[in-house]
Write a structure and sequence with these properties.
43% helix, extended, mainly alpha, 2 domains
């Protein structure tokens, strides 16, 4: 009896430590989500000066915006853009100008670019910004946002770059110069899988070797099943009733 008592205590201690660890992770996640909500409010107030130039923002404004983006997912950035548009402001956080309002009544409008870039675009999308340049500025930072939740990412290693920090006016050239690393996505997927395994929500076969299939063969010819007297005359197991028709 005494030998079983230590085993029971060890099992209870493991259960207790696991529950405490999960509770701590949930609490840390809630705190981080609250911090992200606070950062959306802080970024909503940017820029600090009404005459700020989005191409040359103040170091403090740029630093705060990068701090926000380090924790943001794309959905968080969309929430920030929506809140600024409700306040009739450009969706790019470092721009003090109002977002444009188009008089066109349709859902599609011509963009304000020339040459090969002249095309029909969504009206609601264009009205998020004061200009196409601010739309490109936002698209540039959007590509750098983490794909997984902040509580699964190494947010200390995030280094967000702004569109105007590169000496080019073309979005494609800036993206090529940035060379966004995609290795972080693999790390997030591994952490998500490890968490699911720990919780018992996912079973993964770690053996990467091929599975050998063994086919059993036999020279014996199987005999067809015999019908009993009750099964004879049935149609797929159904015994039709005998119906007699009277002559008129």
């Amino acid at each position: 009896m005494s030998s079983e008592s230590p085993k029971v205590d060890d099992r209870e201690n493991r259960i207790r430590s696991t529950a405490l660890r999960h509770a701590t992770e949930i609490e840390d996640r809630k705190k981080l989500q609250t911090r992200i909500a606070d950062l959306i409010v802080e970024a909503f107030e940017l820029p600090t000066k009404p005459d700020a130039d989005p191409a040359r923002p103040s170091p403090s404004d740029a630093s705060l915006f990068k701090q926000c983006l380090g924790l943001f997912q794309q959905s968080d950035l969309d929430d920030l853009i929506y809140e600024r548009n409700v306040d009739n402001r450009c969706g790019y956080a470092l721009c003090p100008k109002p977002n444009q309002r188009l008089s066109h009544t349709g859902n599609l409008v011509w963009n304000r670019k020339g040459g090969k870039d002249f095309k029909l675009v969504n009206k609601a999308e264009m009205e998020k910004w004061c200009s196409s340049l601010c739309a490109e500025r936002t698209a540039f930072v959007r590509t750098q946002l983490g794909t997984g939740p902040a509580w699964l990412r190494d947010i200390t290693a995030v280094d967000i770059k702004l569109f105007d920090e590169f000496d080019t006016d073309h979005l494609a050239e800036s993206l090529n110069a940035l060379s966004v690393a995609r290795t972080a996505e693999d790390e997030v997927a591994e952490k998500m899988q490890a968490l699911a395994l720990e919780r018992g929500e996912l079973k993964v076969n770690r053996n990467e070797e091929g599975v050998t299939l063994i086919e059993k063969s036999s020279d014996e010819i199987p005999e067809p099943p015999s019908l009993t007297s009750q099964q004879q005359g049935t149609i797929e197991g159904y015994q039709p009733r005998k119906v007699r028709f009277q002559k008129s």
